[in-house]
């Protein structure tokens, strides 16, 4: 799973959501991208599942880019623990995604093939998505 190598603090607060993406709202590296339409925390397991799908789809020809990274620790308390025992241990890491953020990009495949791959990818994610192409 993806996780940061080192952090200044082990646990974080949940934070606030931005209205829309300030950076990363355009397809920069590939020709076709998958853009988030809602806000969500994308888990490291979801990103790993998407990475496997993209690696299999672009094995012979093509390249893919993952433009999100799970750098936010998500803490969870074990079941049946009473309140007042402090914050729970870090369970997994999440990437904070806001509307308009391009999360994944692909190049080297036709647009139809890329759309089919991203259709499969979007079923693995917990956020509503849209396929976008590079503007020339």
Describe the structure.
This protein is an alpha+beta fold and 136 residues long. It has a domain of 88 residues: Alpha-Beta Complex (Aldehyde Oxidoreductase, domain 3), CATH 3.90.1170. Strands 3-6-1-7 form a 4-stranded antiparallel sheet, with helices on one face. A 3-stranded antiparallel sheet has the order 2-5-4. The model has no long low-confidence stretch (mean pLDDT 93).
Topology of this protein?
Blueprint: E1 32-36, E2 40-43, H1 44-57, E3 63-66, E4 72-76, E5 89-97, E6 102-107, H2 111-124, E7 129-133
Antiparallel strand pairs: 1-6, 1-7, 2-5, 3-6, 4-5
Helix/strand class: alpha+beta
- What is the level-2 CATH architecture name of the domain at 32-77 and 87-128? Alpha-Beta Complex
Count of helical regions: 2
Summarize the helix and strand pattern as letters. Answer: EEHEEEEHE
Average pLDDT score: 93
The CATH homologous superfamily of the domain at 32-77 and 87-128:
Ribosomal protein L16/L10
| Low-confidence segments | none
Please tally the β strands and state the result.
Answer: 7
Distance between the termini: 35 Å
What is the CATH topology classification name of the domain at 32-77 and 87-128? Aldehyde Oxidoreductase, domain 3
List the keywords:
136 residues; alpha+beta; Aldehyde Oxidoreductase, domain 3; four-stranded antiparallel sheet; three-stranded antiparallel sheet; 7 strands; 21% helix
């Amino acid at each position: 799973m993806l996780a940061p190598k080192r952090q200044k603090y082990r646990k974080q607060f949940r934070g606030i959501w931005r209205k829309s993406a300030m950076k990363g709202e355009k397809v920069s590296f590939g020709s076709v991208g998958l853009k988030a339409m809602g806000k969500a925390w994308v888990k490291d397991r979801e990103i790993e599942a998407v990475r496997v799908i993209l690696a299999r789809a672009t094995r012979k020809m093509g390249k893919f880019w993952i433009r999100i990274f799970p750098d936010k620790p998500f803490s969870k308390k074990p079941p049946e623990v009473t309140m007042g025992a402090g914050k729970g241990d870090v369970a997994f890491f999440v990437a904070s995604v806001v509307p308009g953020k391009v999360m994944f990009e692909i190049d080297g495949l036709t647009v139809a093939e890329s759309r089919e791959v991203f259709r499969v990818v979007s079923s693995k994610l917990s956020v509503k998505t849209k396929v976008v192409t590079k503007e020339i």
